[in-house]
Amino acid sequence: MTYLLIANAYPNKNRIYSNAFVHRRVKAYMDQGIDVEVVVMSTKVTLDEYYDGVKIKYLDEYQLANLMNSKQYEGILIHFINLKMYYALKQLTYNPRIIIWLHGFEAEPWYSRYYNYLSSHKTLLTQLDRKDTHFEDQKNMLRDLFTHKTLDITFIYVSESFKKKYVDPYVGIEPKKYEIIPNIIDKDLFPYRKKIKEDRFKICNIRPYTAKNYANDITRDVILYLSKKRIFKKLEFNLYGDGPLFDQITMPLKQFDNVHLHKGFVPQNEIPYIHAQHGIYLGPTRHDSQGVSLGEAMSSGLVPISNDIGAIKEYIEPNKAGIVVPRDDVKEMANAIVYLVKHHKEFLAMSEYAHESIQSKAGKHIVINKEVEVINGGK
User: Fold this and answer.
1) Smallest Cα–Cα separation from 112: which of 71, 161, 46?
2) Count of domains in the chain?
3) What residues have CB less than 8 Å from 298, skipping those under 6 apart?
4) pTM of the full predicted structure?
5) CA distances from 349 to 195, 299, 354, 357 (A)
6) Is residue 154 a contact partner of residue 99, using CB atoms and an 8 Å limit?
7) Do both 208 and 352 map to the same domain?
8) pLDDT below 70 — which residues of the chain?
């Protein structure tokens, strides 16, 4: 039995981190004896290629429809569904099992990240123009798929909160078949390293500086708030990331000798080494369907501090696996750091529990076993 996985992007020799989490799934399925072929939706004429033992085809929606109908796959697996994939699905002449993962932007209303469009009048007008075109088409696509009477579709949401707070209210209806399965937090990639009490003075943040939903301005404001406290001189901050907002946001932090700004994209294989050198992961957010970077830090044994947004509390048990404070609350986030610094036993207990907790929820074997069961139709 062969399955076809369709995605909007996939790793290759030039972009090894492009949807790398999808590739890790494919390799895990293959390890369990599931034969998977991969297609990336593309309008460019590109030759088939191999990456890490996986063959990748680049097809448009018409070529994809022809492929699906000619090979009669046991199942179709889709990540980041878009209109072109949808048009290809509508051309199916048989009824394979279809599993569609809903991760984030592809299943949300435009206004769920409204603050990203307030930087300029032009940016806001562009989104408003798309509201009745792209976003309306996207919503209609999801509504049709949620209620389709002939296609055998199961949807996978990465969190219960993402389903209830974002997707279902947006679409206006709940799908007939769905599962809640998070993205993988792989302990092989992010191994646990036991912390010592001195690690609580070392705080890191690894985030893109491309949009306001990453809340890097909150990270900055927390540091500025703490700079007025006696405890500040004992702390060390390392901020990693890049994007058009980096210089503007971090400029006020250049005055501090204990705040180190690392401008640049951090390859995934370097992140565990950064984790190993720190004890606290300062991870404010304005929008998260799961919070993967927080989960990766937890797996490494860092104590996360974040905001009560989206699915954060599903994956960070407050005061056990980390500290969760209200949205945009700079003072409480700073107080959380102070608390961990003053209570090293609680810090060490949270560090150990953070790893155990996230692995019990999103560890590789947990996630893959659930997904394989869905792929096999519950067999």
Assistant:
1) 161
2) 2
3) 185, 281, 304, 315, 316, 321, 322, 354, 355, 357, 358
4) 0.92
5) 10, 14, 8, 12
6) yes
7) yes
8) 109-134, 379
